[in-house]
Amino acid sequence: MTGPDTRPALTETLSSPRRRERGRGPLTAFGFLLPALVLFVVLVLGPVLLSVYFSFYKWNGLGGLPQNFIGFDNFTRLWNSDIFQGDLRHGGILLLLSLCLQLPFSLGIAVLLNQKIRGRAFYRLLFFIPYILSEAVTGVLFTLVMSPDIGLANTLLRDLGLPEWTWLSEPSSVLFSLFLVISWKYFGFHTIIYLAGLQGIPKELQEAARIDGAGNWEVFRHVTLPLLAPTIRISVFLSVIGSIQLFDLVYIMTGGGPAHSSETMAVSMVDYGVRRTQVGYSSAISVVMFLISLLFALGYQRFVMRRDLEGATTTTGNLR
Amino acid sequence: MLSRRSVVALTASALLLGACGTSNDNGSNSNASSGPKKVTFEYYNLSTAEPMKSFWADAIKAYTAQHPNVTIKNISIENDQYKPKIATLTQSGKAPDLFATWGGGVLKQQIDAGLVKDLSGDLSGIIPNFTTASLAAYQFDGKTYGVPTDIGMVGFWYNKKLFEKAGISQSPTTWTEFLDDVKKLKAAGITPIALAGKAKWPGHYYWAYLAMRIAGLGALQQASTTHDFTGPDFVAAGQQLKALVDLDPFQKGFLNADYSTPDGQAATMGKGKAAMELMGQWAPSVEKDSGGGIGGDLGFFTFPMVDGGKGSPTDAFGGGGGLSVGAQAPPEVIDFVKFALSEAEHSKAVKVGGVLPVLKGEESAVTDPNTKVVAENLLQSTGFQLYLDQAYPPAVGQEVNDSVAQLIAGKFTPDQVAKQITDTAKNEAE
């Protein structure tokens, strides 16, 4: 858009005959890929396949390999389990809240921070700090803040003359309290992503829209938002995967309770695998979690992010 | 033919792989220097609260001073994190060299997997020194797989001042009296009971004790072999617990309260904010550690009798704690156990009120009034049941904890509790 297009020249250099011949054999590629490949097989593919294998056995994880083959029993038990159905429900509720409240909120903050205001860098840093904290620290911190009697939250409410809230200690309020903490921790991350996206939008387009008589909202709705769509799609994707795998915060703050009302799939998996030493059943949970993540990831990339990914592929093609 | 570049790339990846594959065994490394060979072993325990925290630190210091070639890694983990930690370690195929255990079905599972050393031979010299009751949880098929450091029982620890304030002059001996006292405490604006709903295991004490009082110890022991907890007496135990829960006797927000955190069950009791808790012999020290403690106001009474129940009011429920040794542990571990559990050493822990006597004739070392009252009640007990979540295999024990927690949260009926436990026990036994 600015200056002459330099791409043909670049392509020429990269694909000049001399460069192409040197060390481009499949063996070289394999050699470079080998370390990553081995790590992938040992640390990702291996455990996944082992989990699938374990999930067909009744096994407490102790002493040698599992012996008691029970077919799909673990999966039928999972299907009929109130706890697991609850896990899916809680994950869904948290995801919905994230998509409908947390992400729009992050976007709003990002739009504000994209304007020229005093102390912009400071606010960006401030909002990003929660994301830097580890989940364990956040969990312990908010367990104390939300403690019913001595916690900061209820003390503040008391001092302001407002009624106290049950926060984490009642099934009715625990999910929303967790959502508040999750949002506190992650909105800064999404804000930064959006901010990066916003800064990639050329000012000329917004100016052009304004000259055509568009107001603030129209510029946002018809120029900014469509151009930000790839960023939003990525942010939604990360949100969904995060919800499916939600563990640390929940495990530390509530352990899935009270009465399993905030339990997620990952918490169930650890509870059955470690506390109850039902490793077979717990593996079945992990397999289902994996399948849900995989199907979502594939489906989302195929149908939602197709355009974004095509862009990436085209670029590589050009270079070649 | 391989080009030079390919060779370099392959070599580089091979080197990287080699680096990944290097494993070093730090578990028990030996050194070929002069003198006795250097030994390092790990001791996993849950003595994070005083006075036992210092007791173990001192014992290790004293032992390693005598045996400079031995290094003991003292790994103390808080109770509710300790259990999953040991489970993960044992699932990796190796038990720690020395670790704290409660015995029972959990230990049995580790023994069956060949992870725990049979101590019958190595410790034959000191095993007869222990009282029979304290050893029971660690013995299977005539073999001893652990030695006790503590033995005690669960009972109600209560705040005498708060009881007085509510006009209660005598501690309750029957369940009806107990429920009346709870009502009196509530009427006086006092939180009757502190409970850690999040930790789950403190709740199971109520159901287990009620089952022992109503169905009787024999029936409970029988149920653990027939895997059938659906009898009317077990349902009745759930109903009585529900009668208590319906009085709303627990502190605010108890459902997400932990046991030993600054706002947990022990702290609530230790700050004088609740009138009682159902807890084991360690309660006074944890109350002090996390909530300051209530000193001389603390009293103890045994779990009340339920009218018409088949059990005996002197049957005790509880346990202690012991030490087991990993199958591949170096011999020095055994030597350390002999040292720490010698009367000279162990009675120090009894003196400071950290544990109860486990050695014959050690009773004279008891000076702490709280330790004394538990020791006396234990001495008079006519029967004993180990904590259900340790006596049964983990799957069943945790189901007991979880189902009872569901009942306390109002999600399960007494029938559902009995059915859930039975289903899991039957499934586990298949």
Structure description:
- The complex is a heterodimer of chains A (320) and B (430).
- Chain A is built from 15 helices and two strands.
- The longest helix of chain A is centred in the first third of the chain and has 32 residues, at 82-113.
- Chain A has a two-stranded antiparallel sheet.
- Chain A has two domains: 1-53, no CATH class; 84-319, MetI-like fold.
- Chain A is globular, with a radius of gyration of 25 Å.
- Chain A is an all-alpha fold and 320 residues long.
- With 430 residues, chain B is of the alpha/beta class.
- Chain B has two domains: 39-150 and 320-376, 3-Layer(aba) Sandwich (D-Maltodextrin-Binding Protein, domain 2); 155-317 and 387-429, 3-Layer(aba) Sandwich (D-Maltodextrin-Binding Protein, domain 2).
- Helices cover 46% and strands 14% of the residues of chain B.
- Chain B is built from 18 helices and twelve strands.
- In chain B, strands 1, 2, 3, 6, 11 and 12 form a six-stranded mixed β-sheet that branches.
- In chain B, helix 2 links the parallel strand 1 and strand 2.
- The longest helix of chain B is centred in the first third of the chain and has 18 residues, at 4-21.
- The N and C termini of chain B lie far apart (60 Å).
- The interface between A and B is large, with 45 and 48 residues.
